[in-house]
Amino acid sequence: MNIIKKLSAVLIVVLIFCSFSACGKRTPASYRVKKETAAAAVSADTDNKALYLSKGKNKLKLIAKSDMMELYFDSESCTVSVYDTASGKLWSSLPEKDRGEKTSAVALTVLFKGESHILSSQSDSVGFSSALYEEKENGVTVSYGFKRTLEDGTKINIFLPVSYSLSGGALAVEADCSKLYGENHDSNVIVTNIGILPFFGADTKGEEGDFMLLPDGCGITVDLSENPDKFDEVSLPVYENGTLIGAFGMKRGDSAIAVLIDEGEELSSVKAHKALSKGGYNRVYGSFEVTPVQDAGDSVYVCEETYEGKIRLLYRFLSYGNADYVGMAGAVRELLIRNGYLLSETERAESEYPFNLSLVFQNYVTDFKGRSLSQTLTTYNQAQEILDSLKAKGIGNINIRLKGVLSDESIISADYSGKPGSKGDLRRLLSYGNGESVSFYTDAALVSASLKESREPFAVGLDGEKLNKDNRAFISVDSIDESTNALLSLVRKGDVQGVCISDAAAYLYSDFSSDSLYMKNACADIISGQTAAVSASGKLMVDTGNIYGVKYADMIVNLPLSGSLQKRELCTRVPFIQSVLHGLVEYSCEPLNKSENSEKAFLRAVEYGAVPYYEWYAADLSDQEKTDSLSYLNSITEAQSQYERATAVFSDLRDARITDHYRVKKNVYYTCYDNSTGIYVNYNTKPVSVNGVTVEGMSFIRVN
Fold first, then answer.
1. Per the domain annotation, does 568 fall within a domain?
2. pLDDT digits (tens, 9 = 90+) for 499-536
3. In-domain check, residue 596
4. Which end of the chain is more exposed for a tag (fewer CB within 10 A), N or C?
């Protein structure tokens, strides 16, 4: 991750404006390949020594060392191993045992005649004696020459240099994709994916307490102590579907690794495999889609361009007390700060503990003719009444997300709406709030618009169709700067000094237009720079909070407290992303009154260090009002109670770092902060005694 690269990318796209008249199907920068019966590969005659770790540390060559680790190289298999001097653990690129999988240090997926082939650095490069290496300062560079001959005589020749070095207390692994294709390359063979160190630290079965860490939602651990009969492969595209960070880890005994994808993370997926009862390995790694493809049944759409930048991963090695998911979070946090993606110090003013609130002024509904109509749910005057009620209940430092105050769902054509009230009413609300320690954030979508109402030039997929998700269309990447300028114009002419970006930190996409092709990495560069521009105009709140979008944020809302995998066997949710962020930027989970059990959701927020967050409106919906969870009258008393309880615990922990978290006993958890403060949370209905402390049922207690 290179923040200079990301900010400079903004200068390239400034003042590029797209016509509002663009419509229809944009021509994609792709071509279509019909699937044929691809010829089978002729197996390489590979020396088994190249497939597995066949040597102990004393038989490997030491090529670099630091105070905490030593880097070794095996010239026969062209792989590296790292010795963690603190724990005495040797982490290797290849496993020690044969469990029925073809191993590799680097794996390539190539497309030929519409069908995919997987090439292994061991059987398709080292096995042909076509891997060369050169020792350098602090490491070694291995040039893998992948070779494969298909039965129809087609020869695959691909070249990829990968460097391994010790840098800044980490193992740095870097692949240069600009040198991906070598001489005599068949242009019909396209590299689509690169897997880096897919077997690093792989093992057949873990000890009790061993796990893989995955960046799914808040974070998920996968227990390695059991080998089930079945466990489907996990693939988590970074910055999509709740995967907020390009990082992962593995714990084995008293040692662990924490890995940050430092460059190329926008193109990556974190993949995990589980050792099963009949074979396979426990392994987790980063895979990079360097040439995007899209399956179309009998054919495949292929992007006209291949990524030519660098792939870079940083491996940190942890031992003993730090060899857990909180220790991994600390290592990742340090790397993110060092690389400029998180600020090491906050400029948080001395103030009361915050309370986050979304006020819904209007929403959009579709009538029987398919037209989008606005429905007023809260007026500006009613919003002031809600503020009066909160102030009367002792809630002082309030961050209000103003949802539905704009006249259009498209930010480019939006203005402040008059339906919730006059502009004078809005100014009076803002003036009142600003004098009462209330921060207002105009809710706005920066990169998407309603699917039905989208007027901007839109982003397209490889098949030329409009890109959309959750009934929203993504605007063309060339239009993001125009969208940002429109948002900044609204901020300048209004009295609202804060902005809540509702989509840019929740979605990442490519735009495959033939006029201006942007892969995900280029899109992320632009969004990151434009987010910085928005934050420079005032306060910034973001929804969900991918790492590339939170550096300048004052507050994150809807940060996940769960993961998509948590209901799978051997999977457990943990506060990994919260352990990275706490003390650097404040965050909330989903609105507590929108959860099935608001009290349980509040306890989870306490366990994970989240600020209380509610979403309300003031409309009288008659019969629904008494049961409607979003009607503020139904939960304002509960909100007061939860805010008071949270304030009593967290008022002096806002800048603290999470240093430990674990399950004490069934339904009881402990979170510790770096000022020696701990919080026990009990989800049981009955009291529980732990370490001489009694925690009441469905409650929590702070200890020092």
1. no
2. 999 998 888 899 999 888 999 999 999 998 999 999 99
3. no
4. C
DSSP labels, 462-485: TTSPBPEETTEEEBPGGGHHHHHH
Q: What is the pLDDT of residues 425-474, one digit of tens each?
A: 999 999 988 888 899 999 999 999 887 766 668 999 999 999 988 888 99
Rounded to whole angstroms, the Cα distance separating 105 from 645 reads: 51
CA 57 vs CA 89, 92, 126, 164, 393: distances in Å = 10, 10, 21, 17, 65
Q: How far apart are CA 289 and CA 307, in angstroms?
A: 8
Three-class DSSP category at 54? coil
Rounded Cα–Cα distance for residues 339 and 697 (Å): 43
pLDDT of residue 350: 63
Q: Which residues span the domain enclosing 662?
A: 656-704
Other beta carbons within 10 angstroms of residue 278's beta carbon come to: 10
Say if CB 704 and CB 676 are below 8 A apart.
Answer: yes
- For 646-655, what is the mean pLDDT? 94
| Domain assignment present for 17 | no
Q: Is the pLDDT of residue 213 over 90?
A: yes
Q: Of 84, 81, 85, 82, which Cα lies nearest the Cα of 52? A: 81
Number of domains composing the chain = 1
Which residue reads 């103003």 in tokens? 402
Burial (CB < 10 A; 0-12, 13-18, 19+), residue 315, is buried
CB 119 within 8 A of CB 200: no
Phi, psi of 336 (to 5 degrees): -65, -40
